[in-house]
Design goal:
about 425 residues, alpha/beta, TIM Barrel, 2 domains, nine-stranded mixed sheet, 21 strands, binds pyridoxal-5'-phosphate
């Protein structure tokens, strides 16, 4: 058995007790299951096996180098969202033709970096960005392959903060403008449109918006071919959700069964940019109870040593994560708010949770925090970035050590 499960009363990762890891490495601590990352990557790859496809793991979900390296070793390519993520991809061993460069606001320096490296494609977000790419490419007397990121005005039915495919969102080129833009781009000497891209949101648990977005790209590719622009591939983005509360959500096979019938007749190869689907359930955040506080006539609070600087999803998206004692406890259940130590009332990991009466120093695990967890960590309140450990074949390796106060202050005069 792999992943996070109980061996008797103890929560373990790939057989390694989480309590031992917290003792050895301190808390807050991210722990990842290498085996879970492998199996979840393979599940997507196998679901699409009978159709030409390339998986470009979305580094934004978790770009700790060891995780990026592991995905590369499995055959993944990379989706980078900034110059920094391109650098991380290169340092993790991806070569430029394995990288697509996405992002709603790419600076000229980042575009030049991507062009000089020769990344597989730049997913262009606007007419202005295409003009900038064209100018940089012509200056270098080269021609750059781009994909047009289309905004199909489709509601992903996810949280508004992670929906990206509506016309009220800043992302992509409106479907109604793509045809005219394409005619304009055809006259440019520095760019070739070779792909169409869409990404309508994240944590999508209803396959219909994803299917509709793919259908919109297929239709557009057909029209563009008639206009004289030959599209070589469709980039269907990422976005497939995971279950944070144990309820059933579509798996990789159902995802493929929703998308492949839509694209198959085109024969066009596809790119997928999954992030969360691969890494979210592969990580937990370990945190200890610092203090218990009962406000008279008010709430009971369990104050933890991890908060919004370590995991901001609950505060940013009202995201739900299961929070469990690492060692099963027989204490009577109480309702409490599980909160962080920061000077913010929003610093709440879980509201009104029923847990066995927590005790000071007790170790808890915040589950399914492998995606958009450590990558979104911050130094607010001068807190230090947590350490990260990966379990591979029963061995724990520190893949990111805890930041020190000297490192934090090294940038300052
Ligand atoms: C363009 C793009 N591709 C892929 C992803 C990865 O999404 P997810 O982690 O939901 O699979 C994102 C994240 O929102 C994105 O913006």
């Amino acid at each position: 058995m792999t992943g996070f499960f109980r061996q008797g009363p103890a929560l373990v990762c790939d057989g390694v007790p989480l309590a031992d890891l917290a003792t050895a490495h301190g808390t807050p601590l991210y722990v990842y299951s290498g085996a879970t990352i492998r199996s979840r990557y393979r599940a997507i790859d196998q679901a699409f096996a009978d159709y030409p496809h390339a998986i470009h793991y979305a580094l934004k979900a978790n770009s700790t180098l060891a995780i990026a390296r592991l995905l590369r070793s499995l055959g993944s390519n990379a989706d980078a969202n900034s110059g920094g993520e391109i650098d991380v991809a290169l340092r993790a061993g991806f070569i430029p033709p394995q990288i697509v460069f996405t992002g709603v606001g790419k600076t000229s320096a980042e575009l030049a970096q991507a062009i000089d490296l020769g990344v597989r494609s730049i997913n262009a977000e606007s007419a202005g960005e295409i003009e900038r790419i064209d100018a940089i490419a012509r200056e270098r007397q080269t021609r750059v392959d781009i994909a047009l990121r289309v905004n199909p005005d489709i509601d992903a039915r996810s949280h508004p903060h992670i929906s990206t495919g509506l016309k009220t969102n800043k992302f992509g080129i409106a479907l109604s403008e793509v045809r005219e833009l394409c005619a304009h781009v055809r006259a440019m000497r520095g760019v070739s449109v070779v792909g169409l891209h869409s990404h309508v949101g994240s944590q999508i648990t209803d396959l219909e918006p994803l299917r509709r977005a793919a259908a919109a790209l297929v239709q557009l590719a057909r029209e563009m071919r008639a206009q004289g622009t030959v599209i070589e591939y469709l980039d269907l983005g990422g976005g497939l959700g995971v279950s944070y509360d144990g309820s059933r959500v579509p798996d990789a096979t159902e995802y493929a069964n929703a998308l492949l019938p839509v694209v198959r007749e085109t024969g066009l190869s596809i790119i997928l940019e999954p992030g969360r689907q691969i890494v979210a359930p592969a990580g937990v955040l370990l945190t200890r109870v610092i203090d218990m506080k009962q406000q008279p006539g008010g709430k009971l609070f369990a104050i933890m040593d991890a908060g919004m600087t370590d995991l901001i999803r609950p505060m940013l998206y009202d995201a739900f994560h299961r929070i469990e004692p690492v060692s099963r406890s027989s204490a009577p259940e109480v309702a409490c708010d599980i909160v962080g130590p920061l000077c913010e009332s929003s610093d709440t990991l879980g509201k009104d949770r029923l847990v066995p009466q927590p005790a000071v120093d007790e170790l808890y695990a915040v589950l399914d925090t492998g995606a958009y967890g450590s990558v979104m960590a911050s130094n607010y309140n001068r807190r230090l970035m947590p350490a990260e450990v990966m379990i591979e074949n029963g061995c724990a390796t520190v893949i990111k050590r805890r930041q020190t106060i000297d490192e934090l202050l090294a940038l300052e005069a």
